[in-house]
Amino acid sequence: MVKAVSTNLAILRRARSLSQADLGEAAGISRNHYQLLESGAGASGGAANPRLSTLSALARTLEVDVTTLLQPPSAHAFWQWIDVHDEPSDDFRAALLDQLLTRSARELGGSGAAFVGWADGSMTVGIGVLASGSPAATIVGRAQVEAALTEVGLAHASTDEFEVDAGLDGLSDDGHI
């Protein structure tokens, strides 16, 4: 359980663009205490053993349920639809796919998995992320898609239409289905 909690805290903190100090402060614990929790270590050198009230405060701050922090993370596919009036060029889609694959590889700790497609004025993007369930995958996936879109010059184009699936079905490590 300690490994799941520390991994989930790190994943969600990064997705929320928070420093360890900022998350600790927002949850009402010290930066040092938070750093120990995220590393999985206790103050006396053993394994971390956080109180339920501490986990509850962190979960509230990260906008997830406590159970999200306790579940072991696994691979999820996050899909989002983006309104685009004109069909994006092949070069644009290739650049976006490269961004998504790079970000997915960092999230999954190995090969990335992603997808970029276009039909009828809507671009579909998919990215593989590591998360402890659909709520966490939504937080991580949205952050990664928004960052990739910003990197290729299409910031704030994503819609509220999204889907999360356990596993990486429909995604490919080379971006092609």
TrEMBL record:
Q: Which InterPro entries match?
A: Cro/C1-type_HTH, Lambda_DNA-bd_dom_sf
**Sorted alphabetically, which Gene3D superfamilies does this protein's record hold?**
lambda repressor-like DNA-binding domains (1.10.260.40)
Q: SMART domains, alphabetically?
A: HTH_XRE
GO molecular function (one): DNA binding
Q: Pfam families annotated for this entry? A: HTH_3
The HTH cro/C1-type domain covers 9-69
Could you tell me the superkingdom of the organism this chain comes from? Answer: Bacteria
List the protein's name: Helix-turn-helix transcriptional regulator
Look up and give the organism this protein is from: Nocardioides luti
